[in-house]
Amino acid sequence: MKHVVITGANRGIGLELARHYKGASWRVTGVCRETSPELEEYAAQVIEDIDVARADSLERLVAALQGQTIDLLINNAGILHDDVLGSLDIASLRLQMEVNAFAPLLICEALLPNLGPGSKIVNITSRMGSIGDNDSGGRYGYRASKAAFNAFGRSLAIDLQGRGIAVAQLHPGFVKTRMVNFGGILSTEESVAGLVERIENLNLQNSGSFWHCHGEELPW
C-alpha cells in the first residue's frame, strides 16, 4: 500500500487530499497542530500537536515516521497575513517565512531517509509567489515566503534528481478555505482533483516545475 504524508491535513485542501488518497486506497498520515474528526476518519496515522516552525515538533515528526517509507510527501501547511505597506510587522513577516518556506524545506531534509527512488515531494505553494505574475502588489510576507518556497523547491528538484525523487511546486487555485475567509472561486474538491492529476503526471523529466492545479505552467 502506498503511503502519503500530508502536513496541514486537518482542514481545507489538506483534509480533502487526505480524503482523496484514503479513497484511492493509500495509507494516509495526517500531520497537524490539532486533529479533527474528519481527519481521524481518513488517516491511518495522525501526528498532531506539530507546529512546523518548531524544532522540537520536527524531531517528534521524524520519530513518529521512523522506519516508514513515504511514497508521497505533500507540504501543505501554511499561513497568510495581510501585510500592508505603512504598517509592516517584522514578526509577521518572519513567521510567514518560517512557516511557509523554511519549515517545509527542513521537513524535506529531515524525512529524506524515508524517501526513495520513485517517491515524490509536492509543495503546495501559490502563484502569489510568482514575481513575474505579480501585478497587484501587497501581501509582502506571503508573497516573499512563497517565492522563497518556490526557489527551495526548484533546488530540491535538482539535488534529488540523482536519488530518483521528483519535486513539484503546485498552486491550488483560489480555493474556498478558511485562510481566505471562504472567499475563493474553487471548491476544495475541484482544486484537489487538479492537484492529484498534476501529482500523477509528475516525473523526473518534469521535476522542478511550477504548475497551476489546472495544468498551466506558471512563471517564476
Spans of at least 5 consecutive residues with low confidence: none
Strand content: 5-15%
Would you list the SSEs in sequence order as H and E?
EHEHEHEHEHEHE
CATH homologous superfamily caption: NAD(P)-binding Rossmann-like Domain
Radius of gyration: 16 Å
Give the overall shape: globular
Taking the alpha carbons of the first and last residues, their distance comes to: 35 Å
CATH topological fold name: Rossmann fold
Mean pLDDT: 94
Helix/strand/pairing class, anyone? alpha/beta
Number of strands: 7
Overall number of domains: 1
Name the CATH class. Answer: Alpha Beta
Architecture in CATH?
Answer: 3-Layer(aba) Sandwich
Helix segment tally: 6
Care to describe what's here?
With 220 residues, the protein is of the alpha/beta class. It has one domain: 3-Layer(aba) Sandwich (Rossmann fold), CATH 3.40.50. 38% of the residues lie in helices and 14% in strands. It contains six helices and seven strands. It has a seven-stranded parallel sheet, with helices on both faces. α2 (37-42) links the parallel β2 (27-31) and β3 (45-47). α1 crosses α6 (188-201) and α4 runs parallel beside α5 (140-160). The longest helix has 21 residues, at 90-110. The radius of gyration is 16 Å and the shape is globular.
Produce a short descriptive summary:
With 220 residues, the chain is α/β, with parallel strands linked by helices. It has helices at 12-23, 37-42, 55-64, 90-110, 140-160, 188-201, and strands at 3-7, 27-31, 45-47, 72-75, 120-124, 166-171, 210-212. Strand 1 (3-7), helix 1 (12-23) and strand 2 form a beta-alpha-beta unit.
